[in-house]
Amino acid sequence: MTKAQLIQAQKRIQPFIHKTPVLSSQLLNEMAGCNVFFKCENFQKMGAFKMRGAANAILNLSEKERQRGVVTHSSGNFAQAVALAAQKLNVKAYIVMPKNAPQVKKDGVKTYQGEIIECESTPEAREQTAKEIKEQKGASFLHPSNQDEVIIGNSTAAIEFLDEHPELDVILTPVGGGGLIAGTALAAHYFAESCNVIGAEPLEADDAYRSLISGKIETNDSFHTVADGLRTHLGDRNFPIIKKYVDKIIRVEEAEIVKAMQLIWERMKIIVEPSSAVPFAAVLTNKEEFKNKNIGIIVSGGNVDINNLPF
Amino acid sequence: MTKAQLIQAQKRIQPFIHKTPVLSSQLLNEMAGCNVFFKCENFQKMGAFKMRGAANAILNLSEKERQRGVVTHSSGNFAQAVALAAQKLNVKAYIVMPKNAPQVKKDGVKTYQGEIIECESTPEAREQTAKEIKEQKGASFLHPSNQDEVIIGNSTAAIEFLDEHPELDVILTPVGGGGLIAGTALAAHYFAESCNVIGAEPLEADDAYRSLISGKIETNDSFHTVADGLRTHLGDRNFPIIKKYVDKIIRVEEAEIVKAMQLIWERMKIIVEPSSAVPFAAVLTNKEEFKNKNIGIIVSGGNVDINNLPF
Hints:
The structure is a homodimer of 311-residue chains. Chain A has 311 residues and is α/β, with parallel strands linked by helices.
């Protein structure tokens, strides 16, 4: 994936996304012992960075492909992102979701006029159902994290971030399926003088950490983490980028995630998902390493059930 | 209070405050049937617009007066605002608080090194204790809402707002002690071509609504409202401004306040106090009146106990 592709993506998706603000808090800086800048993708359209990758992927389709629609399987932010991006581009979106997905997630997709196709709640059933739609309708399949145009679309958050804050020494992102950190690493590689990229992961779902050690894609046997967006594993398109350009992965415990999330809510007055608090938890638990540095954190999203908080 | 005083205040407090961002949400606009712009004073230092008035009032003191310190009685945002503004200007702050004030409020003041003086929880005890401090220490008394320099300081939020969005047809603010709406009305009078100012108040504490009808300052017998910042009544410095320049007061019911607050949290991903949701509740319950207009709302603050939410 080339620098030109990233630049082109940024131009292409610009009419369909928000340029999100960067916020910081003096109190949190004092607490962390460094300057932390939060790139607020929780303020992105549909509430998460996923809008960038979804928009870029659909914009990359030919007119003919767009006429046949797009399909994805997701019960999270990517489902809403595809539905909204498709709606804006007048493309039909088929969203495969497990029958038992929370009503609030289904409602999110319906708000953006995505067509929900229900399936059993196993990974196999999801993939099979998406495959059937792809064959029946001729729809293009979009993967939430392991697809070049999605990764490139995601990179635009870090491009904006580095443009506004070229002084960043490090950018941290949460690591789930690997699409955000891979895009961020590409952006830092192409657009920063010298900016490290570090991933942050729950100890309870530390597949990326183990993958970087073993050199192959590891999975999670269980994932008892509050950071529900980070339970997925890396893919063959993003893992090579992560291996090449990501400095390391920091793991954090559940209590640290919840504490970091609460601090961001109380001090910054912004609503962030548990997954988005993981990088700040990594900063708070590694103060020596980040001391006095300029730290960028990509706040991945803000879609959280406010009637069911972990604190 | 003159236009020159407002301009001077804006210049004077600028190094001590944030220029807060203005946010909006397409979904909320669709829901409301108008364009709503939120001036996010919840992102202000210490989390509320009160920082503006407190900073301006202290900056207005002579060097001699500053050496003797400042005193206020408040258990809310103004206590923290005075403590923080005083700390930044190297002035001693005495904060009179009722013994039974919540620990979280006391901790807020202590964070900014304000000295808490406890008293009984009656209005008389508060005023008496503040008076004693004033006499003993020679400290200058600062009123949360009924003091010219506080009102003038508060006006700077609307000055910034109108500067960024001169197209605003209306600005709505919540009405508690009257300091914010009076400042906003002055700003609209001096800096806008034609922008109405409307107050929003809980039906359960509608003293300002009744005051505008009777022509004299009315009080609340009871105030069973979730909007705990709006229980106070107007004062002799701000009421004349409100009478002269405020278009009207809209009253909203408790359920509407809670619904508006939840919508702002879920859709805008920002944390606002119940008081700050009152103006948006007023818009949602008066859609015909605001249809297709450009509506500005001053989000007064974001200091809320996230472990004790009304939804």
